[in-house]
Amino acid sequence: MVRSVSVSPPGKRAAHAAWMTAGRLTSQARMLPGFLIVGAQRCGTTSMYRTLSQHPAVLKAVLHKGVHYFDMNYGRSLGWYQAHFPLAARARRLQGSTAITPLTFESSPYYMFHPLAPARIARDLPGVKLLVLVRDPVERAYSAHAHELARGYESESFERALELEDDRISGEAERIVASPGYLSHDHQHHAYRTRGQYAEQLEVLEKMFGAERIHVVDSGDFFTRPEPVYDGVLDFLGLPHRGYPAFERYNARPRSAMPESLHAKLDEHFLPFDERLARWLGDIPSWRRPAAG
């Protein structure tokens, strides 16, 4: 089982600025990711990031788990992005002592949903593998709303935010595509229902990367039976097994207490998307399986 813990706040801005200055000066000597956690938001990406960071052959991004280069910062250079990762010399030393080829990675859960990020990743990181986590989309939507409320990016009730969603995000993806430097607050923070339509986003990724470079994890399984899920991720990444890490759950929020009628309406909305998701998981999604007993 995975236990819940809190996440420490990010480092001070001054420390980040100092690191970035040094990182840019040495960017060409740094690694680029061998894999990315690209989503979905509020689906356990932080927990997976911290789990994989414990593997001896995995070197995480420096300072932040999510660099958000391919969605929010693509106007900066690839050198700026590379400055966020460990020095290649460190990887060579590690490889010499372990005989394992190290990988580095980051986790930015907006990548999967952003209309330009997949093509940017495919262009700049040829051969990169993508890791995707999914959960009950009804619970994901509720958790995302609570998250945005806590951050000050939302002021409406959950039910009202769902009513407003179509109007809020209408045309925003097209505007991002037409003006690549445009940052859409509504598209990033108010797509509660749309972000849970995982199959649509996975089918876009498949066209650019091929299904063999995408691995989808059901976070319901990850949080209840982490060992086989972890085994599958290591196999996908081509990493050797070096024992199981500590499995901990980060950024967890209580299950929703929404009215049953609203839950049923959302559940019906997501059904066709969940049916398409099953081929990616190789099983019925955990939230659609009959209750045990």
Your description of this structure?
This protein is an alpha/beta fold. Helices cover 46% and strands 10% of the residues. The protein has 13 helices and seven strands. It has helices spanning 13-25, 45-52, 78-82, 88-98, 117-124, 137-151, 158-169, 172-178, 185-189, 198-209, 219-224, 226-237, 260-281, and strands at residues 3-5, 35-39, 58-60, 103-107, 129-134, 214-218, 248-250. A five-stranded parallel sheet has the order 3-4-2-5-6, with helices on both faces. A two-stranded parallel ribbon has the order 1-7. The protein is globular. Residues 1-8 have low confidence and may be disordered.
Whole-number average pLDDT? 91
Beta-strand share of residues:
5-15%
N/C terminus separation: 20 Å
The amount of helix comes to: 40-55%
**Largest sheet: spatial strand order:** 3-4-2-5-6
- Number of helical runs? 13
- Shape call: globular
Low-confidence stretches: 1-8
N to C succession of SSEs: EHEHEHHEHEHHHHHEHHEH
Strand count, sense and closure of the main sheet?
5 strands, parallel
Radius of gyration from CA coordinates: 19 Å
Count of distinct strands: 7
In short:
The chain has 293 residues and is an alpha/beta fold.
List keywords for this structure.
293 residues; disordered N terminus; 10% strand; single chain; globular; two-stranded parallel ribbon; alpha/beta
